[in-house]
Amino acid sequence: MLAQEDWTMRWTVMAAMVAVAGCAATPKEQAAAAARAAVAQESLDQALAGLTPDKPVTCLPNFQNRQLKAYGQTLVYTVSRNLKYRTDTSGGCEGVARGDILVTRSPQGRLCSGDIAQTVDQASRFPTGSCAMGDFVPYRGR
Question: This protein's superkingdom (predicted)?
Fold first, then answer.
């Protein structure tokens, strides 16, 4: 007969294994995620078409008017028709694509690589995600 401690240990291990198995994505979920990623990549390619990438910068210059769009884990700041900045985030800010607000707090007064951004639902004002900014790659028109 198993001692109480052995039984508890086996039960804990079994419960942990079931929990981990429940987190695994099904093939259908994996296919849907791959399809979403492909659509996001295609949209990103279209948004940057005709522009040439330049050397990455650590911080974005301060701009009064910049438009933000999300393509999966990538954010694109549009300054003008001939200047856009792309940053690949750590993931978690994909809600911007569905209309969530991106909230940033930067001690330098400008957005820099490594800064943490938070997404907030427009209607409820509840946080929906967060991500770390990557380097900013300027894309310039010819």
Answer: Bacteria
